[in-house]
Amino acid sequence: MRSIRPLLTAASAVAALTLTVTACGPSEDNAGDKPSAPATAQSPADKIKIPADLKERLKEHGIDVDKWRDGEWKNWDRDTWLREAKDFVNPIIEGLWDPDRMRDAERPDKPVEEEDISGDEGVTDPTPAVVRAKAVDAKYHANAPESGKVFFDGPEGSMVCSATVVQDPAHPGKSNMVWTAGHCVHKGKKGGWYRNIAFVPSYNDSALSTSALEQATREQIAPYGVWWADWVKTSDQWIAQGASTGGAGAPYDFAVIKVTPEKGGTAKSLEETVGSALPVEFNAPAVPKIASMTATGYPAAAPYDGQRMFQCADKPGRLSLKAEQPTMYRIGCSMTGGSSGGGWVAKGADGKPALVSNTSIGPSSAGWLAGPRLGAEAKSIFQDVSKKYAGQ
Prior knowledge:
The chain has nine helices and 18 strands. It has about 400 residues and is α+β, with helices and mostly antiparallel strands. A six-stranded antiparallel β-barrel has the order 5-6-7-10-9-8. A five-stranded antiparallel β-sheet has the order 4-12-11-15-16, with no helix packed on it. The longest helix has 13 residues, at about 375-390. Mean pLDDT is about 85; it is low at about 1-20, about 25-45 and about 110-120.
């Protein structure tokens, strides 16, 4: 089997292997030290909706609602960057994610430096051969209706990830839940919750070229609307350990988002709007029992530009970063930054497609991707979000 990076073996330290979370956008660990991000978009004061409970939570942290409305959300000072699981706030700013802002969400502006990863004492299979990602045929809604892009703001500007509409046991057939990576919603140990988190299903549904998108309307880019995060939950392990490089926290790099339509006033759920949602399979079969997994995403780092949806299908192998942490799934795939959070689909226990993982990490040179195996921690997060809105 051809190797594109040094092999990870069960009893050896790994030399010169770069693992980086694959969100698209700047990922400097010290970014939170900057007092504010560059002004990227101004929205009229009357375009922001802040529910009463969010106002109270902001006040608890000394954040003035009027200042937030006028752009205080761009302040990434450590003292105002909310970090704890219970502190997530995400007021809707209507129209913030306009076509230009969505199209131009930033990719990394410099390579991630090589970083050694040691402590691999678990079971790791040989590095998989590269699987060239295939472009998904338009319309995306007809071929991968559950997939889309997550947009969010961090200290260095706007960024993107990929995500998947998943079924909500509390609202059968009417889910408003989305699955993505933890690093697409929270900085990890060096920061807090990202802001202005929104999901766009079937982004660029017609697979328009980048040049054509420069003239596209919001309806063409986001034909099924922009859905803002009402609530987000990721693992305590990601919040405590997560890092931009090195794989720290990666086995727990998952998140669940409860969304609401930006415009409001619609009786249709996200699942009804897109016409589909995937079940989540927790404690999926061990690697030898899985014939193939398909990862979907919007890779944005070269040679891709983030505007089109791609997929990789491969038989998974195992990747162990630390013996005391869960072993991850790994597949050959050429997708790059921006594909993070995208769903990995395999046959569930009933033989039907189910989400079994999400893209988390990969080497900076691309070639393969790794995703967490969804166990008890992931199931607990999923159930908590579902139960929180069960009566609504």
